[in-house]
Amino acid sequence: MTQSRTGIFIEDDFDYAHFIPGHPKCFPLHGHTARLEIRILGSKRDFDMIIDFGELRSMVKRALSSLDHKLIVSRKYVKRIEDGLITVEYSKFSLKIPIEHVYIMDSEVTTENLSEEICKILLNYLPENIENVEVNVYEGNRKGAFSNRARE
Asked: What is the CATH number of the domain that holds 25?
């Protein structure tokens, strides 16, 4: 007998800047409006719901606030952090940016890695009844990446 699993999803978006050194098109600093589709699986609780849509949207907004309107950069390009400024260097580029406008990732800032990072961030905000989160990140129209992460 097959067990049925039910989930819910919402869509949201955020804006960010990034660069990918060595890539023929994405090496200069540039920005995107990323559209997200967030899918969750979990056990039902109050009102026979996994989570209320408004509650989920609020949690997603809080989670995305660390990324929205930020330069998202791989740790390997951060050269210094001092006096509230992050110095980022790659190729012939050198940038000094106030720390509050930067989000640092351990990996290269690709759409694939961004979807993984958002899954990780979201699970920290979601209640324990949520077992799994999937994030689809659309970078422009008709293209993107997705990641799926179970609660550990």
From this structure: 3.30.479.10
Is 112 noted as a catalytic residue in this protein? Answer: no
Does residue 69 carry a catalytic annotation? yes
Q: Is 26 a catalytic residue?
A: yes
24-39: pLDDT as tens digits: 999 999 999 999 999 9
pTM as predicted:
0.92
Residue 117: inside a domain? yes
Distance between CA atoms of residues 39 and 10, nearest Å? 7
Q: Does any domain span residue 126?
A: yes
Let me know if residue 2 belongs to a domain: no
The label of the residue with tokens 């039902």 reads 44
